Amino acid sequence: MKPGDVLKYAEKNGAVMIDCKFIDFPGTWQHITYPIGRLESGLIEGFGFDGSSIRGWQAINNSDMLMVPDPTTAVMDPFLATPTLSLICDIQDPITREPYGRDPRSIARRAEAYLRSTGIADIAYFGPEAEFFIFDSVRFETGYHTAFYEIDSEEGRWNSGRPSDGGRPNLGYKPSYKGGYFPASPTDTFTDLRTKMVLTMQQVGIEVETHHHEVATAGQAEIDLKYDTLLRMADKVCWYKYIVKNVALRDGKTVTFMPKPLFGDNGSGMHTHQSLWKSERPLFAGDGYAGLSDTALHYIGGILKHAPAVCAFANPTTNSYRRLTPGYEAPVNLAYSARNRSAAVRIPMYSPSPKAKRIEFRSPDPSCNPYLAFAAMLMAGLDGIENKIHPGEALDKDIYSLSPEELKEVPHVPKSLDAALDALRRDHAFLLKGDVFTPDVLDTWIEYKSEKEVDEVRLRPTPTEFALYYDC
Q1: Quick check: is 222 catalytic?
Q2: Alpha-helical regions (H) of 256-316
Q3: Fewest CB within 10 A of the end CB: N or C in the chain?
Q4: Does the annotation mark 271 as catalytic?
Q5: What confidence tens digit (pLDDT) does each residue in 329-371 have?
């Protein structure tokens, strides 16, 4: 859609407001709303705003920034009562009109440009499977003298023994722990709600392949999107989260993409399917292991080699590493395999078509900023191709059944966000190619995550520590 088309589209749909959306550094959508009369000039000149209030961005003495709408993202917002045109924006310096280096969407654009510059491929396709939980209530508080959280779900197995009362009969049908994949109703109580989410996604042009209950109890869910290019898929992941949360809210529910909200049950991952194409030809299909080409194997080699550093973007929260523990289907071991879901990289074998040949990186989770995570994965894979990094022999055994001696030979993802940030400090040259990630971006990311998240968690006692140590 070109700027002129956007004006016609807004008029056709009776838009009276413009909602400009952009993503902050950690990965949360921000927005500013303007009267529709500012649309034509805004598409050309952009909209100014204060960048010092955005997490990880400008200092107060250099705060003016420019938000420039991408006309190809124009769509009517499906939730606002007033007809409102939604536009995703890129961030620029207001003086030079250069893309802002810390804008995650700009980093994704640079990753796609670097891919084309290598001559290896012209398109990278991404297909994430973002999981989430649907709860009925959530309470949490952190203070100087208190800390607690409490979540509840009518579908939660812990409610199987709850007494019935006049307004809340207990009718059973609650998925067991690790038993949610995927029983039909009445055990799965969220089919209609997930369908509402899918229909809303379709309203904004997102093509959905399927939806289902996931493994955990208490409403864990997954909605799968059809693959798209890196930038467009990152845009769609933002819409995905926005839609899922708002549809749930309308039904009196709350959604979280937090990777590990429940102790003792599976966490939420974001398995990410990836493939490279050139001149409309799939590059990952070949006659090697699992029908892969050397290009695909080298891409896997790059992913596995750089995975600890990539985790700093693909698993960017302290809570991410509560999920990345053995025994909960989270692939902590850095190996690859056909069909084996306990490997960090899996080669799906659903179809013999060369066009379906792809790799699935299973460690990431949906707390990530998709622009940064997809860009980091692509850069790791390209480094593997450029340096012909072979991933070694495939591991087709059940990794969780290996002996301790055998497991010693298999590398693993970091055990904490702090360790992932250390890996990024040591291993980041592959991200700097083509100025995709800059030293400023990496330094700011490490500093922000270390001070605002790692230290915030590290310094605070937890309820579990009181249970363990109060009577020491």
Answers
A1: yes
A2: 294-314
A3: C
A4: yes
A5: 678 889 999 977 778 999 998 888 999 999 999 999 999 999 9
